[in-house]
Amino acid sequence: MDCRKELVVKPGRKLDLSGIDPSYTGEHASAEAAQGEIQRNVSRMDALQALLYADGRQSLLVVLQALDAAGKDGVIRHLFTGMNPQGTSVFGFKQPSAEEAAHDFLWRAHQRAPARGQVVVFNRSHYEDVLVVRVHGLVPESVWSKRYELICDFEKMLTDNGTRILKFFLHISPEEQLARFRQRLEDPARNWKISESDYSERELWPAYVEAYEEALSRTSTREAPWYVVPANHKWFRNLAISQIIADTMDAMGLKLPPARVDLAEIERKYHAAAAELRKARERNGKNGRNHNG
Ligand code: ATP
Ligand code: MG
Question: Which of 84, 124, 257, 261 has its CA at 20 to 30 Å from residue 141's CA atom?
Answer without folding.
Answer: 124
